[in-house]
C-alpha cells in the first residue's frame, strides 16, 4: 500500500514537471512579450524556426553588402557626381553656342571692313 | 486797197505776236528744266539712303534681341533710330528739291555720307556692343561651370591644373571685357563714339575694341576647352 502510494506521488510529481516544462516552452515560443513571431528564412527558404521580432535573423541576399570596391553609398555618390559633370558639359556646350554666335558680331566690329561701304556723294 | 493793206498788216501783226509769245513761253519752260541740276544723281542718293535705313533697322533689331548686360544697348538703339529718322528726312528733302547747281546738290548729298557714318561708325560700333553682349553671357556661363568644378576637383591633381588654366583664361576675359554691368575700357570707349568729320579717333577706338573682342573670344574658347578637360579628368 505504501509502495503504491509512493509510486503515485512520484508519477504525479513527474507529470507536474512535464506541465511546467510545456508551459515554459510555450511561453518562449510566443516571444514572451506577446509579440508576433517572425519566421527566419533558412538557406533553403523554408522556415527553419521562429524568432521574436526585433531579433536580427539572417539577412536576405539583397541586404548583404556587395562584395567588391564600391558600396551602395559609393555607387550612389558616383552617379550623382557623373550627373553633375554631365550637367556641366551641357553648360559648356551652351557657352560654346554663345561664343559661336558672337562670331559674326566680332567680325562685324572690324572698322576697316565696314567703312569701305560708306562711299561718297555723287 | 488801203483797207486790204490794213487788214493784212493786222493779221501779220497778230501772227507775229502769237509766234513771239509762244517762243517766249517755250524759252521760259526750257530754262526751268535746265535749272534743276543733278536730277540723274537723285536715284543714287535715294538708294544709298534706303540702304542705310535698312542697315540701321537690322542693327536695332539685333540689339533689341540681346540681354544688355552692360546697359549700353538702349542708348545705342536710340542713336541708330535717330540717325534713321534724319536720313529719311534728308532723302525726302533731296528728292523734292530743285538744285540750281550740281554743287548745291552735292553739298546736301554729302551729309548722307559724312554726318551719320552709318558704315564707318554705327555698324562696327553696334557690332562691338552686340559682340560684348554675347561674350558676356558666355563668360557668365563658363564662370558658373568653373565655380562648380571647384567643388568637384577634390584631390584630382590634373583636374586642378585644368581648372586653374580655365580660371586664368576667364581672368584675361574679365580684364578686357569687364564684369557686367561695368564694361571694359575699350568697350566703354566704343559706346561713347559719335560721328565726326575727322574719324581718326573713332578709327583708333574701334580698332582697339575689335582687337580686344577677338582676344576675348579666343580666351573664352580656351576657358571652355580647359573646362572640358577638367570634366574629362573627373570622369576618368
Q: Can you tag this structure with a few keywords?
A:
heterodimer, A: 122 residues, mainly alpha, two-stranded antiparallel sheet, 3 helices, 2 strands, rod-shaped, B: 236 residues, two-stranded antiparallel ribbon, 82% helix
Structural summary, described in words:
The complex is a heterodimer of chains A (122) and B (236). With 122 residues, chain A is mainly alpha-helical. Chain A has a domain at 72-102. Chain A has 3 helices and 2 strands; from the N terminus they run H-E-E-H-H. In chain A, strands 1-2 form a two-stranded antiparallel ribbon. Chain A is rod-shaped, with a radius of gyration of 42 Å. Chain B is mainly alpha-helical. Chain B has one domain. Chain B has a two-stranded antiparallel sheet. Chain B is rod-shaped and about 90 Å long. Chains A and B meet through helix 2 and helix 3 of A and helix 2, helix 4, helix 5 and helix 8 of B.
Give Rg of chain A in angstroms. 42 Å
Query: Which pair has the most extensive contact?
Result: A-B, 34 and 53 residues
Strand order of the largest sheet of chain B: 1-2
Specify the number of helices of chain A: 3
Spatial arrangement of strands, main beta sheet of chain A: 1-2
The number of distinct helices of chain B, counting runs of at least 4 residues, comes to 8
Mean pLDDT of chain B: 89
Distance between the termini of chain A: 157 Å
User: What is the 3D form of chain A?
Assistant: rod-shaped
